[in-house]
Structure formats: C-alpha cells, structure tokens
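Worked example

This section walks through a single chain of length 1043. The input is the sequence exactly as stored; nothing has been trimmed or padded.
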Amino acid sequence: MPHSHRDQPLTKRQRVGTPTKTSATSPRGSSIFAPFRTVGLVSPTSVPFTSVPLGKTTFQITTSVGKALQTYDLKRGLNLVFVTRPQTPNNITATYAWKEKLFAAWGDRGNGESQGLWVFQRGRRIAELDLPADLDQPIKQILVFGSWLIACASTRVEVWKSGTLEHYTTIHSVAGKKGDNELTGGICTMPTYLNKIFVGRRDGWVEIWNVSTGRLIYTILPPSPNCGAVVCLEPTPALSLLAIAYSEGPLVIQNVLTDKPTIQLIAGNPDAPVTSISFRSDAHGAGDDGRKDGVMATATEASGDVTFWDLNRGGRIMGVLRSAHNPPSRDGPVVRGGISKIGFLPGQPVIMTSGRDNSLKSWIFDEVPFSPVPRILHQRSGHAAPVSCLQFLPSDFDGSEGGNKWLLSGGQDRSLWGWSLRRDGQSAELSQGALRKKAKKFGLLASSALTSGPTTSLDDLKAPEITCIASSINRDGGIGAMPGKQVIWQKGYDKSKASDAETSGITGWESVVTAHKDDSYARTWFWGRRRAGRWAFQTSDGTNVSSVAISPCGTFCLVGSLGGSLDMFNLQSGQHRQRFPSKLTPAQAKQMQVQRLRQTDDVIHLQSRASTAFPPGVGKHKGAVTGIIVDSMNKLVISCSLDGTIKFWDFLTGHLLHLIDWAPMTKITGCRYHAGSDLIAFSCDDHSVRVVDIETKKTIREFWGCQDKINDFCFSNDGRWIVAASQDSVIRVWDLPTSHLIDGFRLARPCTALAFSVTGEYLAGATEGELGVHIWTNKTLFKHVPTRQISEKTIGQITAPTTSGEGGQGLLEGAFDEGAADEDEAVSAPTLEQLSEDMMTLSLVPKSRWQTLLHIDLIKQRNKPKEAPKAPEKAPFFLPSLGEANPLATELTAVAKTDEPTSRITKLDRSRSEQVFTSKLRLGATSGEFSDFIEHLKSLSPSTADLELRSLSIGDGSENDSNELLCFVRALTSRLVARRDYELTQAWMTVFLRLHFDLVTGNEALLKALQVWKSLQEREQDRLDNLVGYCGGVVGFLRSPRT
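Given that input, the structure is written out below as tokens.
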C-alpha cells in the first residue's frame, strides 16, 4: 500500500529524459502561461450528434467539437459526463455510438492529412481500426448493425467485423457517368433485412447491397428524373418502409418489398432540401388528439426550423417549430446556423436537435393539453459566432463571488454568456426577455411566415452585437434582485416607475452594463437573475455608444459615445446624474461670456493662459471616447479618446481637472485601470502601451514591440504585468518594474479579447474566427518562473488550449510538476552572508515557525483534549473477551517485557539532543562566536525550541559559563550587533523574558546583559526609523505634482 511506510523517506523519482539545450535565440513557448482548457464549445461543427440508450433510465448524447467528442447525459439535464482523450490529429468527420463504445472517424488523405478511425470507451481510446491503404476519401458516416461495422466515404463503403474490428471488404458503387456514384445520401439499414445496407447516390438511385457477399442486390429508382440527388435516408418504424429525401424537394416513403411509393410529399425546395428525417416511435402524437401513430420530423441545413408531419391520410403538416436553431446568417459565415441533425429518442416523446449554431437541445411533446409542436426541455449551447469581448466577474466587497469562477463573454451572435470555470453545467446565457413570445406577437412563428425563409430569426429580436462590458457586483442582489416582472431596457426615465428605485434599494439592482455595435443605447443586466435589466441609457449627443464603465461602488454607470460625449446614470433609479463636462446654468454661461470679453486685454489673456484651472462647461472630447475609468474612491473620472487626449474629471461636479494631450503624436484606442497601484495603461494606434500614474499624471512606462494594432490588453491581478494581444497573433507580457518583455507566445490566429482573473490563476483569450474561449493557467502561482528579458526572436508558436484539456496543466498538476528548467536560465545567485554591514536583514526561517513559537501556549491550550478517551462499551464480536486466556495477548505482553531495557535508547537520544543545545551555547560563550548555536536554534521546531528555552539553567548565578540564561542573552546581543535575523531575535527574546522573568529580575548579571541588549535595540530602532523616514520623504518629493 502507498501509505504503509509513512515514516520512511519517500523515494525520489528518477529523471529519465535528458533536458535538451536550447539556444538563447531559438523560438520557445510561454514560460508563464500553460494551456488549461477551452470552454464554450457544444456542437460547433456540421458533424451530426449520435445517441445511445443507457439502460432503461436515460440516454447519452455525443457531439463533435472538432478534434474531441463530448458526451452528455439526458437524465442529468444534458450535463457533460465525458470528453474523449487523446485528441484526434485532425478534425472528426463522423461519429457513432454503439453500446458502450464510441466510433470517431477523422482526417482526409485527399487533402494531405492523416486519417484514422478510433474507438473510445468512457472518454478513453481503446482501439484503432486499420484503414485500407488506398482510401483517400473522408469518412462521412459510420453505422454498426449485427456483426458489421460500416463506414461510408464519398464513393465507397468500408466494412469491418464489429467483434474483432478486422477489415472485411470494400464496396464500390459504379457510376454511369462521372460523379453519379457519389454517395450523397449516406447509408442506412432496416429491421429484418439481414446483412443489407441502403446507399443513396447523386443520380437519385438507392442501392441495396449485401455486405456479407459484397454484391449489389437491387436498385430503387427515383419517382421522376427531376428529383435530384438523394440527400437523406431514414427507415420508418413500419417494416419495409424507407423515407427518401431528394435534393429538389420531394420526400418519398418507399415500400422496399414492392418498390412502390407509399407517400409522396414536397417537404423542401431546391434551395432548402430536407437533410435530416426522424420518426416518432412511442405510438402517439398524430391525429387531432395526439393518440395516433405516424409522426415524422424533417429539417434542413438552410434554416433553423423543424417541420412535423402527420403521415395519416396521405401526410400533412401538423406544425412547425420555428427558429429551433439559428438560421444561416445573411451576412455570411460569421454567425453560424442551420440544423445538422434531428432525432426522436426511441420510445420517448422527446426529440433531440443539434445545429451549427453551437447548440444541442431536447424538446418534449405535451400530451395534456395536446400540442403538435414541442417545448424546450434541456439545452446546452454557446456562442454561435466569434467572441468579441471578455471580462472576469469581479469579487464583491466580502469576496463571496470568486473572482476566477465566472467569465463574461459577448459575441457577434448578439448574446451575453456567463461561463463557470468550476462547473460546466452552471454556464448560462443571460436572457433577453421572452423572445419566442415576442416573435409570436409579431407573427414570426405563424404558419404564414414559412415563406419568409431565414429572415424570421429569433436572434433578430435580440440586442445588437456587444462590443464592451463593464461590471461590479457590490450592489447585485442575486436571484432575489427586483422580484417579479419588469419591462426590460426602458428607453428614457419614467416617473411612474419611481417605486422601482425603492424596491431595488432593498433587493439590489443591475450589475452589468454593455455597449452595442451601431447602437446609441447602453443596456443593463441583472447578473444574479441572469437576465436583461430595466434600463437602456442613451448618449446625450445621440451618437452610438463607444465605451461603458461602472463605478466601483456599483451605483453609477458611465457611457461614452462616438461623438465625444460622456454621461453618468444612476443604476438604481435610471436617472441621468451628470455630464462631463457639466452643463452650464444660465448664470454660469453669462459669467463665461463676460470672461471671454475681458480676455481681450493682453495682460488678462496672458494671466488666463498661465492659469492651470479649467472653467466649467469646457473640455468635451472631439473624438470617440475609447475608455472610461472611475477611481476606487469615486473622486475622479478618467476618459481617453481618439483625439489623443486623456482627461481627468471631478466625479461630483463634472469639471475638468487635468488634461494630458498626446495629439497629434498618437491616438488612444483603449485604457485599463489597476486600482491597487493607481496606474492606468493606454493602448495607442502607434502599437504601443503607455502607463500613467494617476497621482502625478506622468507617463512612467512605455512598452513597444507589437507589430500590428493592439486588439486587447489587461493588467495582471497584482498590477506587475501588462498582457497585450495584437493583430500579429502574438500575446506579449511586459514587466512594469523593469520595463522588460518577459514572455510572449504566438497563436495560429490573432487573439481578439483578453481577461486576467482577479485571483491571478487564469488568463482567458478569444481568437479570431473561433467560438470557444481559451483558458491558460498562471504557472508562477505554483512554481518559480524566471522572468528575465527576452527577445522578439525567441517568441515561438504554441497550440491553443483544447476542449478536453489534453496537454494542458491545471493548478494541481503544475504544483507537482518536476519538469527541468532550461540550463541557461538556471543561474544560481551567489550566496552572501551579508550584502552590507549597514543593512539590517531578516532570516530565511518561515514566518509561521517563529509566530507559532510566540503563541505556543495558546496553541497547546486550544489543542488540549477536552476529556479522556473512553473505552468502547462492547468489544467487537471477533475479539476474545478479557476473561479468557488469549495466547496472542500473552505473547505480546512477553515481547513488551523483553523490550523494556531497549527503551534506554530513546532516553539517550533525548538527552543527546539536549546536550547538543547546551554544548553549542557554552562553546559559543567561550569563543564569543554564537553562529553555530543560532543556526542550530533555527533548525528546531517551535515545540522543541520552546522546550529548550524552558530548560535553560541559571547555574550559580555568576557570570561564568554555568549561567545558561546569561549566555543566551549574550548570543542574542551578538546577533543584534551583526544586524542579522532581526525578527527571530525579537521572537526569541519575547519568549525568553516570558519564561524566565522571575529569575532575570533577581540576578544582577542578567540585568546588566539585558541593559546592553536594550541600548543596542534602541539605537538600531532609531537608525531604522531615520532611514525609513528619509526614503519616505524622497519618494513623496518625487511623486508630488508640485515638483
């Protein structure tokens, strides 16, 4: 067992690999950040989901996220249960779930990629199938039935034995002309048709093959030559009936035995053919009351709608589930959409749908009252378009919300998401109201709107794309904030809603504010309730919002516009509170006019130019406001603009206090604030980052190196680093104290958004064109990382974090990582006893050790048992009673008796350790050098040191070596003279006086020694006070704005 020998020393693991020496100029990865995982991916690809029943209680649904598979449990509300590892070398092209196994085909040899077919079980790869050497087509579909495993490629079908996974044969479909043998409709099987598969071709034929013999048995021809290619095949619950969908729109339910069509429907059109079919198998759902069998569902990749058909009496449309998923975007592939697959669960009134909008949903049919259209049951989704902005949710004043738990993200799909980095199932999109109800009111969900096509999207009713996020949860009321229903995003203050302010004063109010693309309104959100807020704040000049901010107290919201206006609103009441610059009253306007007239005099004009004060009502930005900051004390508002100016405003009056003008040298594109150090960093259009001290209003740092525009940047949690992502695909890290570039790494695509967690554990980033959010861990929290200056040539390309976390490094893994550091960085500093004799230094003993020594009595009292241990009332049945003769007990007693003389070893060890302490003390007293004694005392544990101090003897009370108390005082005095181990000498002297106060007061020699120690202590204290005061004065002089 691993813990059977806990008292023995642990065996150090041998390092097998030899660290490779790297050149100082060779590219390398990041030394500070390690990839952790990617969040926000559910079903971002066009690969259909696959499902399998798990016993009789639940189903497991598996989706593809690129190079990994994610499995969700339906009974647990689509909670994530497995993520496959390792990742496939290339993107997954087809999946299939069979019993407890998952099959995944990946890669395409035709594009020069590697290709394979792997088998997973419970998230781990257990096998790999051998592919034919001449296979140069991607596998589009996998099917398992009976003893066969079938894989469908573009023009061929591969067959394996499902038991042994041995390749059996290859079926080639013959074409009458070039391209007709392309298998556009995939493959399927039918019950009772042993060893038979049905294959749909581009020319409209459906071929029936016997996989055992490899022979073509029969070909089903299309009902007319104009039907087009077969795009979908699906067997019906009725025997020998097969549903065939064609690219020109027809859908035929064919009787395979008679080769005659049973039902013919026009389910699609040439622009939107049916690409997915499913049949309900619980014998309900059709008819006027829903008590009949015969329900079919169809969907297409060209829209987000699901159509339900009643196949009784020739077939008719029962209802249409409008906007089940996002339709394809009219603006191109930026916002993904379309349904990739639908499927009824066997024997259940539940249908699963997955779309290219990165979502997986389950819908349930209500029986009472009967509804032909299902309602949503569960859903897991993420952004349907690339992420545009990120922000970690800050902690509130008592730290109840972890600063590294929640990550806010806004995407180009008009959604705002909150991602949980602790539990994936807690992630949710913030609601924007009853969109389906609003769409029904506008007629978007009516049957007459079927001809409108993809323009009738629920996403058209959402707020525009989010471009900026600001948050502060100090006033957030959680789930109980503003109970009941409120009108969302009221545009303008309504006096009839004054009661809202009273209610919100008790329960809390909005805590998140967002700016939107091409919109003049900033919108508020309830974080605790995960929904839209009550207010929509409009800019005072009517131009679009460019930036937003929230005061640290969480009460005020500031909105900047493209026209240069800056307004402040109250989040509790929704009222406009201030304008920067403030609006002049008539009296102030008249006074300003008089002042301008008086400035015609040259002397007065020169005096006014020499004055640094700004008159009220002046100072509006001439360009778009690109950043707004409120200091931690609600005294200053700092704004920056594309006009190249940084302006400091009075929070209460709105007057301009100070101006920094960098125009026309550069334009300012953004700003970030670190409250702990009172520093603001500004990104400029000349690809630089400049840092300004709020108190002195001076530029203290400039960072250069970005080769293209800066997309986003942020401070580290402690304010020591600035992390910037630029369009050249490089993320750079600068060290503020040294102004050095200390780290950098290149991604495959540019990073568009960055966020650093409040606790410093995570760095989040969004890359261009990707739906997920990448998370890196900060390695400096659990290991030493050299942060010396690096060159731009050493910045190498690394792979982004993965969904499965493969190759990543969490906090626990990093803490126990024993990886070898680069030899060129492993430069040990020279060991010096003391840098200078004039310096007072501290020891390297852990702070907890000497603090424990100071409070050892309190700790012992607290850990003292309250009562003696009690014997068990009744011994276990398998132990003999005490009254009976027990040979085992007799033997143990005999062994104990024989071991009694050997207990002297323990006594000798104890006395030997005590003699070491005393001998080193007396030896130091004789030689006058107490270094060995001090080092020995440092190595003792707090309890042992306390025991040794209690054991000090006064001897005969004279000044010879027998007086151990006097020798101990002289040892501490020598350490004070050497100006070393200052905190340890104070702690040891405190414990010494507390233990031997009565003996010290009665001995003249000890009092004299303590008087010498006291004089040295007072002299050293005065010297340190003077040095600290001098340094403080110099720093204050340098930071003073007057100098």
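What to look for: Residues 934 and 971 are 8 Å apart (CA to CA).
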